[in-house]
């Protein structure tokens, strides 16, 4: 009876996972069709009416087509990345490296975008000698996504602070913003694939809600956990820990 109960439970779990995958695929198919239809429409207009369009209209149509193509490319990349992570088809290349150098590099990558919104980005402490043992490429992917989200959800003249604190054998990294925050009832779901908070800031780019799900799985591969604390109207803080190398 115990074995039968376990088998039934596993079967129900598999059915639930299969149902969730079907819903995810249906949602992603819709996300793919939208920019694809827009791209097709603008290209058809350029082909059929290119000679009658003004130079300004041709440029606008071409730029819109390129933006939709970039959105498609980003979404497809995220779908493949999530599929590889869920299938366990990921290779880790762990090495010791100075965490401070990586954090400065990632901040520099977003300096222009932050300046456009007059957002102040800080690293505290600004200089430190701690080395961590992790996959630098995977960690950069996580930091890039978290900073990109923070900038998108932080209003003009806001702040984004990267805080590094040392424990006995781990380093804690906090990415804290002064953005719109997340409703308390929604915090538990933001790492689910395709989930987007109701107050998500909109822009001209496609956001399929896969980024945080990918980050959560990447940090799990690095034997860490990505956690979040947030308050509506005050901001959000994402945190994780990494093993520190002895000096």
List the helices and strands and how they pair.
Layout: H1 2-49, H2 55-86, E1 94-98, H3 99-109, H4 111-116, E2 120-124, E3 131-135, H5 136-153, E4 159-166, E5 170-177, H6 211-221, E6 227-231, E7 235-245
Summarize the structure.
With 247 residues, the chain is of the alpha+beta class.
Please state the oligomeric state of the protein chains shown.
Answer: single chain
Sheet/helix structural class: alpha+beta
Task: Kindly state the percentage of residues in helix.
Answer: 40-55%
Largest sheet: 7 strands, mixed
Number of helices: 6
- Overall pLDDT score: 83
What form results from the Cα inertia axes? Answer: globular
Q: What fraction of residues sit in β-strands?
A: 15-25%
State the end-to-end CA separation. 55 Å
Number of strands: 7
Q: What's the alpha carbon Rg, rounded to whole Å?
A: 21 Å
Low-confidence parts, pLDDT < 50 over ≥5 residues?
A: none
Run of helices and strands: HHEHHEEHEEHEE
How would you sum up this structure, described in words?
This protein is α+β, with helices and mostly antiparallel strands and 247 residues long. Helix content is 51%, strand content 19%. The chain contains 6 helices and 7 strands; from the N terminus they run ααβααββαββαββ. The protein has helices at 2-49, 55-86, 99-109, 111-116, 136-153, 211-221; strands spanning 94-98, 120-124, 131-135, 159-166, 170-177, 227-231, 235-245. Strands 1, 2, 3, 4, 5, 6 and 7 form a 7-stranded mixed beta sheet that branches. Strand 6 (227-231) and strand 7 (235-245) form a beta hairpin. Helix 1 (2-49) runs antiparallel to helix 2 (55-86). It is globular. The model has no long low-confidence stretch (mean pLDDT 83).
């Amino acid at each position: 009876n115990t074995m039968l109960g376990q088998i039934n439970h596993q079967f129900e779990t598999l059915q639930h996972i299969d149902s969730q995958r079907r819903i995810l695929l249906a949602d992603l198919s819709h996300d793919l069709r939208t920019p694809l239809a827009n791209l097709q429409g603008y290209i058809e207009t350029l082909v059929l009416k290119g000679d009658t369009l003004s130079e300004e209209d041709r440029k606008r149509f071409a730029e819109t087509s390129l933006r939709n193509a970039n959105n498609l490319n980003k979404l497809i990349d995220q779908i493949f990345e999530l599929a590889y992570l869920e299938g366990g088809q990921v290779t880790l290349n762990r090495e010791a490296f100075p965490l401070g150098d990586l954090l400065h590099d990632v901040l520099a990558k977003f300096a222009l975008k932050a300046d456009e919104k007059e957002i102040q980005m800080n690293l505290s402490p600004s200089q430190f000698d701690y080395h961590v043992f992790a996959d630098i490429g995977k960690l950069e992917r996580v930091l890039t996504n978290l900073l990109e989200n923070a900038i998108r959800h932080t209003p003009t003249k806001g702040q984004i602070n990267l805080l590094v604190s040392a424990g006995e054998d781990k380093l804690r990294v906090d990415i804290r913003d002064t953005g719109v925050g997340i409703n308390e009832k929604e915090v538990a779901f933001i790492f689910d694939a395709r989930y987007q908070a109701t107050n998500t800031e909109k822009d001209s780019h496609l956001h399929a809600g896969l980024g945080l799900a990918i980050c959560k799985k990447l940090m799990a591969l690095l034997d860490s956990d990505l956690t979040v604390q947030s308050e509506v109207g005050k901001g959000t803080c994402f945190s994780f820990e990494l093993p520190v190398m002895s000096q």
